[in-house]
Write a structure and sequence with these properties.
The protein is mainly beta. It has one domain. It is built from four helices and nine strands; from the N terminus they run H-H-E-H-E-E-H-E-E-E-E-E-E. The protein starts with a helix and ends with a strand. The structure holds iron/sulfur cluster (2 copies). The site of one iron/sulfur cluster has 14 residues, from helix 4. The site of one iron/sulfur cluster (SF4) has 11 residues, from helix 3.
């Protein structure tokens, strides 16, 4: 549980996702479970898809109909609490933030990791972006098995 070990329940995780039909296009998954004074996700979105409102402590909400899955909010979130997910056949494509070195490279196979830090399978690196505006937070695009849709959270070490 979140307040004991920092791991959200499946119910909490799934509450951040749109229905699977919406995920045929890339959508931001904002896993910001606490009320904290923070809003770069909202201010960075060029499509106004994330709303926090006048009280900066409110949790962000996503209008999935406005979200294009661009990934800007992913590297703009200081809490690394956002990913982008898209179902592609029997796989799921994620865009995640990554701040470790060495960075992965396209075509490499890394391990897919769940929220408990356990290895759950493979993640194929598709693309790594690290522009000036990203302030050392890379955006890594990976493909993993669709069965990991609600479990995958990060990558670790090349296979
Ligand atoms: S992925 Fe892009 S369009 Fe979607 S909420 Fe984030 S910044 Fe906005
Ligand atoms: S920027 Fe990240 S940590 Fe801050 S409110 Fe948005 S999702 Fe939460």
């Amino acid at each position: 549980m979140l307040n004991k070990d920092g791991i959200p329940t499946q119910e909490q995780i799934r509450s951040c996702f749109p229905g699977e039909s919406a995920l045929l296009k890339p959508k931001a998954i904002v896993e910001c479970y606490e009320e904290i004074p923070c809003n770069p996700c909202s201010t960075s979105c060029p499509f106004h898809a994330i709303t926090i409102g006048e009280n900066i402590n409110h949790r962000p909400t996503v209008d999935f109909s406005l979200c294009t899955g661009c990934g800007i909010c992913v590297f703009s979130c200081p809490g690394l609490a956002i990913s982008v997910a898209q179902i592609v056949g029997d796989q799921v494509r994620f865009k995640i933030s990554y701040e470790m070195l060495p960075l992965p490279a396209a075509e490499e196979i890394w391990t897919a990791v769940n929220r408990a830090g356990e290895i759950i399978g493979e993640a194929k690196i598709e693309k790594v972006t690290l522009g000036k505006a990203q302030d050392k937070t890379a955006l890594v695009q990976v493909l993993t098995n669709k069965k990991h849709l609600y479990d995958f959270i990060a990558i670790r070490g090349r296979i």
